[in-house]
Amino acid sequence: FVTLLTSLNDKRQLNNIFGSSQIGVPYGRDREYMNNTWGPIFSADQWSRVLGSSYRADNSRVDIVHASEIWLARAEARERGWTNESLSASAMYANGVKASFTQWGLTEADATAYLDGTLVAYGTDAAENLKKIATQRYIAEYPNGLQGWCEWRRTGIPELTPAPDAANSSRQIPRRYTYGVNDYATNRNNVLEAAGRLSGGDSQDSKVWWD
């Protein structure tokens, strides 16, 4: 996530989202690797946290569904031709980015400058615009990892790679939750019928219908 924000010259990472450092900790590594490779960085307190201290106090604000998510969902729907709102997709995209910036204490001027960047600016190519909307929505979902995972499964954006030390059998990023033991015990026939509709059965690697 730090790499993604850095590649876009995104000021949201500099506004205490991660704390004082922008050194991204690699995900999906085992404890031995982390202790041996990252121990000195942790000791020196130079790594990015999930949130800066001002956002993880006992009385810090928590956003469940933020305006940025709604604006970006509407922008996607408009770009795909699913809706016919009076506002253009580009306008709703810009509103979504601005809402996310203000959520993290930045200004609309910061967002406007960001929206002028080559990798962020809305253009005329629909496929590229949808990719940009998906990228910004993925960023806007932070730090809601579950929702970010859902958006990645739905769109394939951003491009993610499996954890180097993945412990699951396929070593791939899971696409779904499997049914639990209690589901099989109390609702077995329906669970088997539902699992049978999945191309790979009741596996973490099977895609749900909207994936």
Could you characterize what this model shows?
With about 210 residues, the chain is mainly α. About 45% of the residues lie in helices and about 0% in strands. It has eight helices and no strands. The longest helix has 16 residues, at about 180-195. The radius of gyration is 20 Å and the shape is globular. The mean pLDDT is about 95.
| Rg (C-alpha, Å) | 20 Å
Q: Cα distance, first to last residue?
A: 21 Å
Number of E strands: 0
Summing up helix and strand content along with how strands pair, one would put the structural category as mainly alpha
Overall spatial form: globular
**Helical stretch count?**
8
The sequence of SSEs as H and E is HHHHHHHH
Question: How would a textbook summarize the main sheet?
Answer: none
User: What percent strand?
Assistant: under 5%
Question: What attributes characterize this protein structure?
Answer:
0% strand, globular, single chain, 8 helices, 211 residues
